[in-house]
Design goal:
The chain is of the alpha+beta class. The chain is 55% helix and 9% strand. A four-stranded mixed sheet has the order 2-1-4-3, covered by helices on one side. The chain has a two-stranded antiparallel ribbon with strand order 5-6. Strand 1 and strand 2 (72-79) form a beta hairpin. Helix 7 (246-277) runs antiparallel to helix 8. The longest helix is centred in the first third of the chain and has 35 residues, at 9-43. The termini are far apart.
């Protein structure tokens, strides 16, 4: 029989250390797991990392065809969905420099209306390819330029007749005849009317950057400038006769003219304030200003005041050219008022339904 040998002291210590280490490992794992659990509980609920969604951007292509021949002019590609029709016009201008954006008219159908620059192309898309028809609108001018040119002419033309140039009137006859006070008052009223219009064009009305054909500005200038020359020639003529009822007729008609001018200004300010504030959901309502109370009766009081100004001017000066001009202004303003009244009926039917367009009861 072999006797079991006792291990030596160093070997005995190593053996005990190995056993002790083996016995302590489960204890250390339990403690580590406990510490990790406490850390998780103190940190809060575990959240999964956010899932990154890769959105696929679809680009559109716009095929532009000539409206008359239906031939393809160009293709505007790589348009993101947020693009507007104005972006299409700018890219079209880069491809065809002879047509700048304001000259380009785009239609969805050949006989359809021209599309506005603010329209988003995604609203027009049925597929990734959009077909539009191109029309050359001709040379264009901005609305600010249009109105400034149209209103500056009458202001200067009337003053030329008022100073009685020798090329217009006989100089001897002009120096002999004394001017009636209504001549000076008519000059003041006429000039103040167009100065108001110029100031409102610059500081009150806000144009959205649209354009109009140059031929429209030529027609407007011919109308206003021509009638101003005719009216001014008669009123400032040396043989001009004053109104039949004298100073009383002049006074009351001049007062009515100034009241209509003030009312027209306050109405334009009210409409501009509503547009600038973005409150287009309701019909303009009258304020504490008495000149705005006309909103209770008509939907276009600015046209009512405009017509009232020229009728008052006709009564004050008692001239045929002024009467014809006032008559034509009544016709033109009534047409504009009817058009705007129909637009108001679509947007504010309960509020506008009982109102007249420009003049109560008559129109």
């Amino acid at each position: 029989m072999h006797r079991r040998q006792k291990p030596s002291a160093p070997e005995h210590k190593r053996d005990l250390a190995a056993r002790g280490g083996a016995l302590s490992m489960p204890h250390n794992d339990t403690r580590s797991f406990f510490n990790f659990s406490q850390l998780v509980l103190s940190a809060g609920h575990l959240k999964s990392p956010p899932v990154i969604k890769h959105s696929k951007i679809t680009y559109f292509e716009v095929e532009i065809l000539d409206m008359q021949s239906k031939k393809q002019i160009c293709i505007v590609d790589k348009l993101p969905p947020s693009s507007t029709l104005l972006d299409v016009k700018h890219k079209f201008h880069k491809a065809c420099p002879q047509w700048y954006p304001s000259r380009v008219g785009l239609q969805l159908e050949r006989n359809g209306p021209y599309l506005k620059d603010s329209i988003n192309i995604q609203s027009l898309a049925v597929s990734s390819i959009i077909t539009l028809y191109f029309t050359d609108l001709g040379q264009q001018v901005g609305w600010t330029t249009f109105f400034l040119t149209e209103y500056t002419g009458p202001l200067l033309i009337y003053l030329l007749f008022y100073i009685r140039l020798s090329t217009i009137y006989d100089q001897v006859e002009s120096t002999k005849s004394l001017r009636h006070p209504v001549v000076h008052l008519a000059c003041f009223c006429h000039c103040s009317h167009y100065i108001r219009r110029l100031l409102e064009t610059l500081f009150v009305h806000k144009f959205s950057g649209g354009h109009t054909p140059l031929k429209n500005m030529i027609k407007g200038c011919a109308f206003y400038w021509g009638f101003t020359s005719w009216i001014a020639y008669y009123i400032n003529h040396p043989q001009y006769t004053p109104p039949s009822f004298g100073h009383r007729q002049v006074f009351f008609s001049a007062l009515a003219f100034l009241m209509c001018e003030a009312g027209n200004h306050f109405i334009n300010v009210a409409l501009a304030h509503q547009t600038n504030s973005g409150n287009k959901a309701c019909f303009p309502s009258p304020t504490y200003n008495p000149f705005t109370w006309l909103f209770l009766l008509v939907s276009c009081p600015n046209y009512t005041y405009e017509v009232g100004s020229w009728i008052s001017f006709t009564v004050m000066t008692q001239t045929l050219p002024a009467g014809i001009f006032a008559f034509l202004m009544v016709i033109q303003m009534s047409l504009w008022a009817q058009k705007k009244h129909k637009m108001y009926l679509k947007r504010f039917c309960p509020e506008v339904g009982r109102k007249a367009a420009m003049i109560p009861i008559i129109f």
